[in-house]
Specification:
There is one protein chain. The protein is α+β, with helices and mostly antiparallel strands. It has 30 helices and 23 strands. It folds into three domains: 444 residues, no CATH class; 257 residues, no CATH class; 160 residues, no CATH class. 52% of the residues lie in helices and 13% in strands. The strands form three sheets. It has an eleven-stranded mixed β-sheet.
Length: 921
């Protein structure tokens, strides 16, 4: 039978012509799976790179630029050598060497990088026509930076130039200033500024041009903002009332830098290297941190000193920015990995099911080939060639679609993911056939779910998975998938991947346990069902119990998908709850209208009529109150106890009974009861104490209750009292707290006017996603959960499709025996319900248990809130009921719908045709 063992193209073509529908379905499944698998790593790269670029941009170029500096050449050098060291030929050559010292993956942006010389000390200039705000003479800093013409446009005059050879003895040089400096210091083209010099007359600096920066916020200008914008500098920075003087920069041509040697300013040579933000990639984060560290205190610094000066130093905060972003990324990535591993597991199960379905459909054919002498290798080769002809082009098509859909990111990982998916799709059918037909036989024994006993190998495999899952869950509970920490990102390997696989493993173990328990209720129900008058119930249970053991694979897919969906839905719901809570703490209610002074008397009524406002609470907040004999600063809120207690109850912030804060009947003598923050309560205790109000009056209060939060005051040092006991001036309303699900921000601002501030919780919440890393992770998480749910539906469809021919033939035979169409529908529905109920109930229970087990090790702060936002606490993972109930209900509805549809479709077809089809099978 050598012709059976040969893999011939003709045989492959015949097989494809015989079952074109199956080939097309396999091609579609492989293309879709490959597209998702290849797009995922590129999508992750895209949002991580965007988040890194955003973090670098927000850090400002002054922090992220690498600044190499060295003092002026020492007096041990001749004057001529000192002057040459400041000129562009020498400085430019050193700048090129500095750029070469920047190691990969860190890349420099040559267009924004520059070199130059500046005076390290500010030089006071005596010219009387310059402005003197407090009678103090202005000061200037002399800067000779390369590339001035390329980074500025001339608004008036011309660019400065060096006339002839400039030395330390040159009496006059040309310079330029920016338009902002000219406007603030009253400088015009032709103005002459006299800069103090050493042992010679002052250096005359003639202004020849007023410039406008082309890229005002680029690294060229923003690394040293004084070049662009003058500043009013206080003499004593610690005294807010200190006298101030103007400080500005005079921009020399680089060829005129030697003239600075004759001034009183201590010269500094510098080479500033701007990083190329477009070349920063998050997957190179460790390499970027190493490159910056090498420049600051490693081999890179040695190269810089060799090229410039032995005393050169490198300063930058880029490493701090990278470390901070790494902490954020390490808090987000494990959460995304949980969803991705779950979806990948379900997709893998579906691919294996597709191969198993094809193998079962062709069981008779393959059995016959083995009986006629076909070897296992020859049979596997034929099946592999037949599948590869369909799967490989489909995989290439899916890869191309992924590369087009997500153009950014690494291509290598996408190709690897596509290759793995294609390989699994190609191997599923041959491997399944090898396992099923390793021994030559005419037919195999029945393996009913109710009667079969699991093998020892299966038991060992299940116990092994149980141990692995238990270890992963315990590792997650101990190690956690929490927010940024000092050790974040330090452990990245198989341990972290095992932690991310924990929910999937819990779902797999639950599926295996339920499969073990599945025959028990069927056996218990068989006897009472047999006593029923109709035959449909008994027959449906018998059919459910006689299903093949190999049909447990769909249950694995469904349980894994439901567990992942429950976990993912709980994560997304927890993220939304954390942001809602943080916004509520920041605003105090759904909306806040406040002013420094008292609000108009009719404003509250006008705001109540604004669209979206459901409730309004008037509050008077005194931020200048001082408590006790030591005059501790405290924010005192005067409230109406009834309305404010209702607001606190609806928001959940500092709930209290309204009777506790009501002013006593003898209010003139008794202290006011007060609600206080823990810090104030710890300081003053339960004894009455005096509070001096902002209007000069005072009131005596006594703390009766303590709460961590309260709606009226955003902070941790507050007192809340009945405003009926306050002075008339202090009790005037200056804050309105609004409730309503859909507040109209524009209408509110039109109602209150421009002078009154409006702060809405919805606007505050929208600001919490401050990084593309967080928003991108959320989108990928949602897509992964949706993909897992879609593959779970596909697994259910494949399982029902597998039994469809047999069911159709059964209904046809039963109809010849008098079974009605309604009874046929009930039969198919009841037959499908046991596994559907098992999957739905087991999935909901497993999802709940997974969230309960893993929640101690998961903190959603990293993905929910910006790193600069203080966490309100309690951002741990919680069970979301909808995420448990909706997927389970969808499984039941889909199962019933498919069964009803199959019964209806079979009823439309003739019984004779179905019987013939069934006999043929």
């Amino acid at each position: 039978m050598s012709e059976l063992n040969a893999v011939t193209p003709a045989w492959v073509r015949v097989r494809l012509r015989t079952a074109p529908g199956a080939a097309a379905a396999l091609a579609l499944l492989v293309a879709l799976t490959v597209c998702l698998a290849a797009a995922f790593p590129r999508a992750v790269d895209r949002y991580e790179d965007a988040g890194l670029a955003r973090a670098v941009d927000r850090a400002t170029v002054k922090r992220t630029t690498l600044l190499m500096s060295a003092p002026q050449p020492g007096l041990q050098f001749a004057q001529r050598e000192r002057e040459k060291a400041l000129l562009p030929p020498v400085m430019g050559r050193q700048h090129a060497a500095v750029l070469g010292a920047v190691g990969r993956p860190l890349a420099a942006d040559p267009g924004q990088s520059a070199y130059g010389v500046l005076t390290g000390t500010d030089l006071p200039v005596p010219d009387p026509w310059l402005p003197r705000p407090n009678g103090l003479p202005p000061q200037v800093r002399l800067v000779a930076q390369s590339g001035l013409a390329a980074h500025s446009s001339v608004g008036a005059g011309r660019l400065p130039r060096a006339n002839g050879e400039v030395t330390a003895a040159t009496a006059e040089v040309e310079a330029a200033v920016t338009a902002e400096t000219a406007r603030s210091l009253h400088i015009e083209v032709g103005s002459v500024i006299h800069v103090p010099s050493v042992s010679r007359p002052p250096l005359a600096v003639r202004i020849t041009g007023i410039l406008t920066p082309r890229e005002r916020d680029g690294a060229y200008w923003a690394t040293q903002p004084l070049m662009r914008t003058p500043a009013l500098v206080p003499v004593d920075p610690t005294d807010p009332l200190s006298e101030k003087y103007w400080l500005g920069a005079l921009l020399f041509p680089p060829e005129a830098a030697p003239a600075m040697l004759g001034t009183d300013g201590h010269l500094i040579r510098y080479w500033q290297v701007a990083p190329d933000t477009g070349a920063l990639h998050a997957h190179d984060l460790d390499g970027l941190k190493s490159a910056v560290a090498a420049l600051k205190s490693g081999p890179g610094l040695v190269q810089v000193r060799t090229a410039t000066d032995p005393a050169a130093q490198v300063s930058t905060d880029l490493d701090d920015v990278l470390v901070s972003y790494g902490h954020l990324m390490s808090g987000v990535a494990p959460l995304v990995a949980v969803a991705v591993f779950g979806s990948a597991t379900v997709a893998l199960v579906v691919l294996l099911m597709a191969g198993g379905l094809a193998a079962d459909r062709r069981r008779s054919e393959l059995t016959l080939l083995r009986a006629r002498g076909a070897s296992l290798t020859g049979l596997a080769g034929r099946l592999l060639a037949e599948t590869a002809v369909v799967a490989v082009p489909a995989g290439a098509l899916g890869l191309g679609a992924a590369l087009l859909a997500v153009p950014e990111g690494r291509a290598g990982q996408a190709v690897l993911a596509a290759a793995v998916v294609t390989a699994v799709a190609c191997a599923a059918l041959p491997v399944r056939a090898l396992v099923a037909h390793r021994a030559v036989s005419v037919h195999g024994p029945r393996e009913d779910t109710v009667s079969v006993r699991p093998s020892r190998r299966r038991t060992v495999a299940e116990l092994t998975l149980l141990v692995i899952a238990a270890g992963a869950v315990e590792a997650l509970r101990r190690h956690g998938v929490s927010g940024p920490s000092e050790s974040a990102g330090a452990s990245d390997g198989s341990g972290d991947q095992l932690v991310s696989l924990a929910p999937v493993l819990v779902g797999v173990i639950a599926a295996l346990v339920l499969v073990r328990l599945y025959p028990l209720p069927l056996r218990w129900l068989m006897r009472p069902a047999g006593r029923l008058r109709g035959a449909v119930g008994h027959l449906s249970l018998a059919r459910a119990g006689r299903s093949s053991v190999s049909a447990v694979l769909p249950l694995l897919a469904l349980l894994t998908a439901l567990t992942t969906a429950a976990f993912g839905g709980s994560v997304l719901a927890g993220v939304a709850d954390a942001r809602d809570q943080a916004a509520l703490l920041a605003v105090g209610a759904d909306g806040r209208v406040e002013d420094t002074g008292a609000l108009p008397a009719d404003l509250a009524d006008r705001v109540r009529r604004t669209p979206g406002v459901r409730g309004l609470t008037e509050v008077s907040v005194d931020s200048l109150a001082k408590a006790g004999t030591d005059l501790t600063r405290v924010s005192l809120a005067g409230i109406d106890p009834a309305s404010y207690a209702s607001l606190a109850g609806s928001t959940g912030l500092g709930v209290f009974p309204e009777q506790q804060l009501r002013r006593p009947a003898d209010g003139a003598r008794a202290p006011l009861p007060a609600l206080a923050s823990p810090s104030i309560a710890e300081t003053f205790g339960k004894q009455p104490f005096s509070v001096m109000l902002g209007d000069g009056t005072d009131v005596t209060v006594r703390i009766v209750t303590v709460r961590d939060r309260t709606p009226a005051v955003v902070g941790t040092s507050f007192l809340v009292v009945d405003r009926a006991g306050l002075s008339r001036e202090t009790a005037r309303t200056n804050t309105l707290l609004l409730t309503g699900g859909h507040l109209d921000a524009d209408a509110l601002r039109r109602t209150v006017g421009k002078s009154v501030s409006v702060h809405l919780g919805s606007e505050e919440r929208a600001q919490y996603v401050d990084s593309p890393l967080q928003s991108g992770a959320e989108r990928v998480y949602a897509v992964a959960v949706a993909a897992g749910a879609g593959y779970a539906v596909l697994a259910l469809l494949l399982a029902l499709l597998r039994a469809a021919p047999e069911r159709a033939a059964l209904l046809a035979r039963l109809r010849t025996m008098g079974l009605t169409r309604a009874q046929g529908r009930r039969l198919l529905v009841l037959e499908s319900l046991p596994q559907a109920l098992l999957a739905a109930a087991g999935g909901a229970l497993t999802g709940w248990a997974t969230v309960l087990l893993l929640s101690p090790g998961i903190d959603l702060t990293a993905i929910a809130l910006p790193s600069t936002t203080a966490s309100a606490g309690g951002n741990a993972l919680r069970t979301d009921p909808l995420s448990l109930a909706l997927p389970a209900a969808a499984v039941l509805l889909l199962t019933v719908g498919i069964a009803v549809s199959q019964a209806w479709w079979t009823g439309r077809r003739g019984s004779v045709r179905e019987l013939r089809a069934g006999d043929a099978r």
